[in-house]
Structures are given as C-alpha cells and as structure tokens.
Fold each of these.
Amino acid sequence: MRLACLTFFLALGLRGTCLGQSAGHLRIRVVDDTTGKPTPLRVRLTQDSKPVPFLPNEAIAVSYGLWDHADGYGFQPDSSFYIAGTFSLDLPAGTYQLTLSKGPEYLRQTHNLTIQAGKSQQPTYRLKRWINMAARYWYSADDHIHIRRSLRENEFLLNWIQAEDLNVGVVLKMGDFWATYYPQYAFGDKGTYQQDKYLLTSGQEDPRTPELGHALGFGATAAVRYSQEYYFYDKVFDEIHRRGGLTGYAHQAESFHGYRGLTLDGLRGKVDVLEILQYCVSAQPLRTEHYYRMLDLGFPLTATAGSDFPWCGHDHDRGPPERSARIGNARFYTYLDEPFSEAAWQKSVAAGHTFVSSGPIVDLRVNQAMPGDRLDLKKGDALIVTAHAYGHAGQVPLSALELVAHGQVLHRVTPNEPGQSADHLSFNFTLDNVQLGLWIAARCFGDSTQAAHTSPVYISVDGGGFHNPETTGRYLAQCEDYLHELEQELEIHRDNPEFRAWYFKQGLKSRIDDTRTVIADLKKQMDR
C-alpha cells in the first residue's frame, strides 16, 4: 500500500507523501541572518541531480504560464518553489540536495541532507547578504512579470517578489492584435498593493506586434488599448502619459523589430524607458546597441530591466536552474531620497536614477551627480568621475568596471590590477577641458551572464545638448534605414494574421513622414 501511494505521488508531483517506515520527516526553517526572523525564499530539492516532485503544503502557489495558460502552479520552471520561511516534507530515505536562494544580494546555499526511515530532523539555516542595497536607498524592481492578478493573489505574489528580494514587481497585462492576456484587477493606486517596502503594481505590454516591437507602460491610472488603431503606438503612449504613466520598449528593442518602433516613437519624444537587460534575446543579458543610438542622438532614456516571467530565461527550464525563467533574474535599482512608495519610485524612475543588474552592483558619480542627473558646464570645465562595482568572489565575481561616454570606453579596471578585486572594483577619473556635451555611464561585468549598467549622467556645455556629433550622421542614416524597412513592410499584404502593419499603411506612413521631419531637423542642427 505504501509503495502504491508513493508511486502515485511521484508520478503526479502532488503535495504530501505517504509517511511510513520507509520515510523520514524533514522540517526546514530559514531565517534572515540579520533579523533572525523567518524570511521568504526560493527552495529547490533534488536527488541525484533530479528534481524531487514532492511539494510541501507551505509552498506559496500561484497559477502561471505562457499565453496565460495554467502551465505551472506551486513549482517554478526549474522545479523550485517559494516558501515564507518554513516547510515540512515526508521523504523516502536517501540523500538529497537542498538549495536555498533569495535573489542576487543573498548568498546562495546548498546542503546535503540524509533522510533516515522513521526519523525526523529540523535544521535551521541562516541566509546572509553580501550587500544590502535597500539600506543604501536603492530599491530593486522587475518591470516585466506576466501573471494574472486578482485581489486574492496579491499576498501570494508579494511573497514571490520578497522571496527574490525585489521591492517592486510590475505585473503586466499583455496584448496582441487579437486579444489580451494576464488581466489585472485594477491600475494606478487601486492596482498597487504594498506591505512595508515591497509592492506590486500594474502595467501593460501592449501594443505588441512583430513589425514594430513590444511596448511597455506602467504607472497609468488605467490600461490603454486602441483595438481599431492597434499599430499606432503613439496614441497609446500619449494616453498613458496623460494618465500619469511611463512608456517604453521591451527586449532591448531587438526582438520583433523593436528598433523600428523605437525609431518611430523615440525620435518623436514618446518614449521614457528602455529595457536594456533581459534574457529574452540571448544568454548575455546586457544589450545596448539601440540604447546607445538613442542617447548619441540626444534623447534621454531611463535604463530598466525585467525578467519577462514566465517567458524568458536561459533556454527556459532546459538550462541550468539558476539561469531558468525566474522572476527578478534581470532587475533594475532605483534611488529614492524620500519614503518608499509607488509614487516616489515612479518619480525616481522618470528622473533616470537607475541602474540595471543581473548580479553586480554599480555606482556612478560625475561631479557628485548621479545617473539621470543633468549637468551644465562651461567650455573648458573638468569632470571628476567616481565609479564603484561591488560583487562577491564566490557568487558574483567581478571581471571589469568601465566608464562609457558616447558609447566609447574612457576607462577600465579589472581585478588583476593593484588595489582591485573580484569583490570590489573602483576608480577616480578626471576628464579635463570639456568642450562639448556628452552622456556618461558606468557598466560592469561578472561572469558571462552577469552585468550591470547605469542610466547616464547628461552633460551639456554652455547650454548645448549631450548628443554625439561624431556618430549623429551614421545613426540618423541608420534610422532612415529602419524607416525604409517599415515602408517596405507596409507594401506586403500578408495572409498571415500575425502581420497586420499593411492594414494600417496610411496612418503609419504619416508617422514615418513626421519622423523624417525630426531627422531632417537633427541634420540641420548637426550642420550648424
């Protein structure tokens, strides 16, 4: 009887097991090393490198899946699960591996556990931080989570983001030409759920098209969708702004020809943020080609990042567990100089006080200004730059810290140099006799999948702009190429229902013409 029951649970992965002479009892308690209190975290239990299919009753379960299907519930894509700090399981006798994690700021732990038949064990583990960014007033966020949310899910989902040590989870309603997915029960203040310094808020990834890319919006008082004018992203962006929200493009503007949409809307001043770090495009999450293009053309954009859970990870559940689809694997930090709230957070995001990260921490000051700030110098003034990168040799081993201005590396340090290490890289750098405006950012790297990048500090000279005159011509020509690509797309009447740009040909051509007017004006400014 016990064998039949055990086989049943193993096959279905249901909660609980069959307690008997062949099983032992395990009760785990995990506390924060600083507070000594139980803390939400992520747990993965394996045996011989294979996931154990038993789910404890304490697992915090919320339905999730691709296209809003119920693909998962208690188990995450890598077979881990979330708990609030304690859980119990009856397990067959044997040796197991227990992995405990809580986002990149905590040190991951792995323990071997030997379960003996008929015996019980109750270990307590302490999770330690290697850094505490919230204590420095930098609050972490994932701007790209897809889970349907009602009032009932709020407490459970807040536990999920706490288990990944996120302060803000932006839960996105998703749309395409035909329908919407992952509904949210409310937007704006009514859609914000906060406990202490953790909150959930609603947003949208809509419009989404294969010809123009995927648009983002969050912080608005309502979702915005124009089904009959679906390819006119600017109408959505304008209304989101009118409703107090921020707009942008997802997936580094690389996937689904997002660079076309970014050109069309970014050059007309409709875009606030760009996701520059995410695992959707490649295993190297930091992608800056289109970010640097817009900055060099003189358009400020706040750097953000998000997981796109449950869609994106390192080959989803087929890669290493730590690189699988998971909330918070790509995140951004925002500096707040006032009490934590959704409104304060959004205001600081709008101001560009951010850096993105998949593990390392980066800090930049330019004449004491922070990312997002603007400095106006007089010709011949100097810039004094201080940059730091923080990591952990065993978990986030730093490999380089770089100062980037107008897309070029001005200064670089590595752990092999005197005074530097895999835990901490830093430099002071002076740029003398500044003649023209520029944007300056810092970026750093850990292993091949770990990176961080700040939003820029924007510097003008004698009231001028921060654009890059050396690349403006090339980038404007590139923008023209992207508009030409879109024009060619409009001439193709596709039977594939996924591609509908041709149907909105007249309105898109008008917007292309408006963008060309902006390009012509920029060329005139460059000539002057």
Amino acid sequence: MSITVLFDLRSEVTRLFVAGSGMAAGDRRLLGMLPGLQKLGETAPVFQRIASAVQQAIEAAPPASAAALLELGALLNAVLYTQGKSDVPGELTDVEGTAYTTSTAVPYRKLQPLLEALTQKGQGRLEQLQAGFEQRLFHDFRVIPAAVRALDDGYSEIPEFLHKSVLPQYGMEALYELRSQFRMDGGKGAARRLELIHGLLGLDALELLLEAAEAGSVEVRAAAVELLGHYPEQLPLVLEQADDKKKEIRSAAYYALSRIGSDEAIRRLHEALASKDRELAIEPVRLCETFSMALTVIGSSEQLLAQIESGEEVSRPAQQLLANLRSLEGKPQPEVTELLIRLLSSAKFVASDTDDVQVAAADMLLDTRQPEADRFALTLDEKYNRKFISYSFRAAYRLLPAAELFDRFAPLLKSRRNKVGNDLIAALYKTEYDLDDPRSPGQTAFDPRWVTLLAGIDEEELVCRLATGADREIEAYLLKKCKEKPNFGHFRTVRLLSALHRIGYGDMPELLMSILEGGGKRQLYYLDDEQLGLLRQLPPSYGDRLRAFAETLTYESVKRQVLDVADSLADQA
C-alpha cells in the first residue's frame, strides 16, 4: 500500500496547526486531496475513515474546527506509526570485526563532546581531545571508529595527536577499523593507517606494504616504502624506489635505506647526499646508526676540505661540505670532533668564502660538549682576528673559574658598537641559558663585575638578568631605568622591577604601588606569573591599597587576579 499521500496529508495538517484551525474550513489543498483519499477508501477502510475526517475538518464551523483538525491529526499519526519499515534490501551477511574488550561506564552525554570534536569542524577541538585523553574517555569502544576516521582531519595537529598518542594504545582492538577504513588511493590519513596497521601486524603486514608500494597513491606509496626499511631483504625494491621520479618516494626510500644500514644502502645514501637530492638525504644520513655511514661522510668531507685548501674551487665543495656537516649533527663519534677541529684549524679554510660552513662547524664543536672540543674552541680566542670570540667565550664559561673568565674577556667588551663587543654580548645571552653548566652548585655562573661593566655600556636587559646581589651603583641604574616611562603592563618595567626585587631594593613595595597607581591600569589586559609574583611580594599592610587599585581596573579578569592577591595579603595580616 502506498502511503505517500498520507505523508503529504500530514504536511498539510501540520501547516494548518501552525496557521490556526480556523483556516481548515474550505482549505483548497485539503479539498484537492479529498477525491484521491475517497478513491483509496474504496479498497482500504482506513483511507475511507481518513477521507471522512478530512471532510469533517473542511466543513466544520470555526468553533468546532479545532476538534475536527485534532481528530484528523491523531488518526493520521496513528496510521503512519503502523506503516514504518525496519528492514533494508539486500542479502544477510555475517558481521566481520574484532571482539572489543575496551569498555567504560562513561555515559554518552559525557562522551558526546569528544565524539563531536572527532567528527566536526571548529576551534578548540585539539584541546578537547587532549582533555578527553587525560580523562581516559578514549578507552570507550564507541570512540574507536571516530578516532580512526579523524586521521583524515584537515587540521594536521589532530591526526598527528591521534596517530602518535591515542590509537597505539588500543592495540589490536583498532585493527578492524584501521583495515576497513584504509584505501590504497587515500591521502595522508591512509598513510597513517598503514603505519598503524604495520605497527600492529609487523611481518604479517609485509604483503600489504608491497602492494601499497606499487599501487598506492603517492602518500601511501611513500609510507609503504619507508616501512620497508624494517626488512633488509627488501633492499632491491627500496633501491629501485630511490630512483623514482617523485621526490616523496625517493625521500621515503632514503629513510628506509638509513634503517637498513647495509654497505649497499650506505653507498646509495652517500650518492644521494652528493647529488641534487642533497636536502632530501641529509636527515636520513644523520639518522643512520651504522658507524660506517659517519666514516664515509667524514672521509668525503676531508676530500672537500682539500679541494677548498687547494684554491681551485670553493663554492661547490663548500656547499657540499655544509650538507655533510648537517648530516653529522649529533653524532657522538670522536672522529666527528676531529673533523671539526681539522676544519677550524685550517687557515686557508677560514680565509676562504666558507662563512656558513665555519659557523656550522663552530656550533657543532660546542654542541658536542666534549672537553677536548671546548679546549680547542678556547684556543680560537685570538686567532683569525677574533672571528670566533663568541665560541671561545662560551667554551671558557665551561672551563674557567668565574673570575678568570671575567679577567680574560672583560677588557674586550668596551662597547657593543664593534664586532668583538657584539659577539661577546651575544655569547653572554647564549651562555646565560646554558643549562648544562659544569660548575659546582655553590659557585655563581658569572663574576659580579660583569653587571657593573654591562651597566656602564647600558646593556639594560643583561643587567636585569645577571644582577643578583646588593649593589648601590646597580640599584641606582635600575631605578633610573625603571622611572623612564614606567608601565606595569610592559615587560620592560616588569623585568626592571624583578631585578630590583632580586637585589633587595628596600623601597620596592612603594615603588611598585606608585607605578600601579600612576596610570598603567588602562594598559593591563592580563597579568602573567612574573607580574603576579611581584604583587604577591607586597607586605600584608598593602592589601587594602592593592584592593582599592583593583577597583579602578577596566578588565574584569585582571581585576579578579589583583583582588585574589589582595585577599591573600589580607589573610597574612
């Protein structure tokens, strides 16, 4: 029985419910449908009854029209509810899948925001997913299909988070979804699925990898070729892919060769490092853990140095030498340190047009953090017209006592208007962040005379960073600077106040409050930890004054922050 006419009728009844029951009397649309209903009523009694109800609604006077329309609507809905279908066309087949053991008692309404973040667009989704991960909501089996599907998300940080942190925790329970959603012609999401499938199946996924390496999209092929690096017996295929026309495939092949690490693989990687694919090969060569790979690069670097020293050609060997050094970064072998020392010991190399290579070599030398490297860097102090003075200073910081460091280098820092001065200032900034200071914990990192010297050449930021002990001269310098356009909402004023607090300036509370009350309130949009830390150092007696200042603030969030500090001070009183 066709019930299309009944759905059409329900639409008209709904329209009249909205318009008002009084509009049903003589309604043209109902009149147009009545003959068809009456004809259907000749074969089905239910249609005869509906046709009768439609006629009553059309003919009812306004006082009785509401009851007639309601009766028609109730009858129509009752009939439609009995005509629904629960089956679908097609053959019945068994459901294929895995037996999920992951389950939680999380109610769906708590799970819904996580599912929406996985399936919809908009801002804040990554934070929602990270929060759900911390709350272990991903352990609910209902999340797995959506999590696998989100590997295709256009916001790259989301699939990266799912790929690296979330999906691996499911183990084999995610395998069915990964395989069912994997497509050979897919994009980055398909490549991620392939990597996860291989992570679960290992050698059992080799057949899939071989098929993907041949028939997949560029992204899928690249992922498959790189994964073939786990199987040394696939070296011939990987070598073939290293000559592919597409650079994405060649790059993946280089990473695979890096993992295989055989003599043939090393030879091919070295060829790539010396070819047009130099940039593609640098990272795979660097990641190769085979010792002979580093020795091969070191040997070719010695040959390039000889070419530069001969003076026949500089530009091309210098570019290649720079690529070689980048591929050796982080290598712990002493042979690498020896190469760096060899380079920086060559007067012809330093005198040639190889500035980028020289900087790379000097940086790498200090990054080795080996005593012999630091001792050599210290010897560069007076060589080459003090070209490497900043590296010598940083090495000296690791090797010399604080007083000797000052005596050796301070006389050179007369001004930052010359290259030596600029280099030393830059070295002081870098050294201040040297977290691997070899000094004993009780020894200060810098001689206090540095602060006086830096104040003399008006190097304000370093004075603020290095000032530690009470010093009337430094106190006067910082006070003078602090009173130049003070603004508690600006990092410069905050930095100066922090330095004054650190050296024990006695009138610090009054200075801070005078700056706050002096007009900076309009520029306070947010208070960071350093600003709040200064406010918390106020004596308890300043609580009421700080509260009064808070009431003048424009932004409610900042006002709340200041009031919280004022309450804390009041509790201490």
